[in-house]
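G., the chain you wanted modeled:
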Amino acid sequence: MMPTAGQPAPPLPAIVVATADESLSRMLTFALRHAHLPHEVFSSGTAVLDKLLSMPIGARSPIVVLDVDLPGVDGHAILERLGVHRPDTFLIVVLSSHADESVQVRSLLAGAVDHLAKPVNIRGVSAKLQRWAAMSARQAGVA
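Predicted structure as tokens:
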């Protein structure tokens, strides 16, 4: 929903999570709520890509936690499309069940700030979420 003239735009979610893995989604939602970080969760690659391409560009880069294994459009394709259509707009963290070096390098070269192999550790992810939120705030001159 777009704001009408004279109305402020709704606040952007600080973090967008895209995963079709229900247990991972629950774990990330728990960690984000515990850290009091606003977030939005998607289980479809098509839906999250549409959302990211339509988001207004602000000073603060939204954080995108992007699982490679998504229905519709996979995470690598999303990462590549965002690199073309919305370069340097998001802080993207890729999640993958493939821990091999080639998959990690592909993600990082396509613009991801980090690549995490599943299964992920809740404490490690919580600490990284705090760090990524701080990076986003520094980019906007908030911190």
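The mean pLDDT is 86.

Shout if anything looks off.
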